[in-house]
Amino acid sequence: MEFDYEFRSRRSNVMSTRGMVASSHPQASLAGLDILRAGGTAADAAVAAAAALNVVEPIATGVGGDCFALYWDSDLKKVFALNASGPAAASASIEELRKSGYKEYPLYTGHAVSVPGAVAGWSALIEKFGRMTFPDILAPAIRLAESGYPVSEWIASGWKLMVNRILRNEVDLTLPKYKQPNGPQQKSAKEFLIDGRAPYVGEQIKIPTLGETLRGIAAQGKSYVYEGQFAENLCEHVQLYEGWLTVEDLKGFKAEWVEPIHADFHGVRLYECPPNGQGLAAIIAAKIADGFDLACMNVVERTHILIESMRIGFTEALQWVADPKLVAIPYRELFSESYIQSRREIIKTDQAINHLQFCIPRNGDNTAYLSVVDGKGNACSFISSLYTGVGTGLIVPGTGVFLQNRASAFNLDPDHPNALKGGKRPYHTIIPAMLTKDHELFASFGIMGGFMQPQAHLQVMSNLVDQNNNPQQALDMPRFSLNVRVGDGVGAVDPGGEVLMESGYSFEELASLRRKGHRVSPVSGWQRIIFGGGQIIQRDSKTGVLIAGSDPRKDGCAIGW
After folding, report:
1. Where would I find the H helices in 227-335?
2. Rg of the Cα trace of the chain?
3. If you placed Cys at 405, which of 159, 392, 473, 535 could pair as Cys (CB 3.0 to 4.6 Å)?
4. Shortest CA distance to 367 belongs to which of 317, 404, 408, 313?
């Protein structure tokens, strides 16, 4: 049987009233729905789905990564934000990296491993908003890990690309002291490979070691990961690959509840998690675009304004997004109407902005996003990631846990707000989103995909609001992506910078954007994954009906009851 990555079929919206889960894999959606039907809240179901994604999308997310969430409390009519991203090791040092000969931050060594925050995030979410326990919530994921499942199309294609990294055969020229020690890593690699290869589409795979790890978390909670034997094994393996993490870095780690940031946009309010996440880019772009009547514009005019708004949003985010515990972020000035208006005024309707320049971290995010709304109208917008594919590719021996390389998003310029420092959290690409309207939940949504995420938030929100699209239509529409250049740490998003355009724009539309100064490049086929994969659950506040869409660019679905 042959599989390709062109989208030819039509998807309908999924509708329900008692609860809905939308994720990038049907088994994860079903895991969340099982918890809702057992009496769990949106928080309980989100953690169940996230844990299931760890099993069925192990190359994208898991215990060894980070997560963020937005939660709508239907009683309080309030959005809460959860930051479950871990810091760099206390002894992390730019000077040490430089002395070791690194000119760029290494992606695949232990230096890139920051404290994994995911399980602390799971714990914080169910402690504050859940009513079920870890043993019940993790049961579906444990069952999948131990009984097995057939590998889906997109995941199989991504898994195949990760084999060399898992086996430590991938030589990164930025690593002057690249090590490939025999022993634990090679043995652990067998947990994710079949005869040294990735599983084929439809081939069944079991990950019993991951099932055992999830059983440990079910029994002991987050302490299983941050204390004891697991923590010791994790740090020992990281140090084998030149990393800094110690058990003291992990001990007592907690996720943090923070105040979300927001932007008003054409009658709705967009919520994002604050820095160290890049939601700031979406907020600035939305505030700027709010000043234009996008609903009355044609495709070319609207796309031009959104591109320009997003460019400006990135210039601010890539300058200011850092750990707010160590860097003072000037929200008052950035969000002031006078400043937003000054940014808005540099946008011309007939010509792309001449030049914008900024320093950027590395791109390449592989992420899993899910959305849940329960019968009471509580909602959880949840995202988690290992960063670049399987992260570092390092596997804690005998656990089925990949370790993220999120610390590689730090800047090695000591004067930059996002500069590496011990105990500091890095720039984070993964961002959930939520919309309210008239003080009620309007939509819980998100789109995975590195630097595509704030761009997709802006475009999908505009589809929902300005074009009055339903959730599935809003996800189906073609997207643009600013092709941010990387190399020496400086990127320019200007008319010379490429704008990738997904198939679906007409030739004349592309030509018109080109005449405005945008260097557009059409993209089709399997490469469409660069435009991200999203989920949307919208709620009618009058009837309580839930309407959900799931992105055709991924393997998932929405399921309700």
Report:
1. 228-240, 247-250, 279-289, 299-320, 331-334
2. 22
3. 392
4. 404
Closest by CA to 170, choosing from 189, 157, 143, is 189
Q: For the segment 362-407, what is each residue's pLDDT rounded down to a tens digit?
A: 455 678 999 999 999 999 999 999 999 899 999 999 999 999 999 9
Q: DSSP letters of 304-319?
A: HHHHHHHHHHHHHHHH
Note whether 448 and 369 are within 8 A (CB). yes
- Contact yes or no for 235/399 (Cβ under 8 A): no
Distance CA 461, CA 468 (A): 10
Give the span between the Cα atoms of 88 and 410, in whole angstroms.
9
Residues 371 and 345: their CA atoms lie apart, in Å, by 36
Could you please report the per-residue DSSP string of 426-474?
PPB----EEEEETTEEEEEEEE-STTHHHHHHHHHHHHHHTS---HHHH
Q: What are phi and psi of 321, to 5 degrees?
A: -70, 120
* 3-state DSSP assignment of residue 256: strand
Between CA 95 and CA 489 the distance in angstroms is 17
User: CA-to-CA distance for 146 and 207, rounded, in angstroms?
Assistant: 6
User: What distance separates the 2 farthest-apart alpha carbons in the chain?
Assistant: 63
Write down the pTM of the prediction. Answer: 0.94
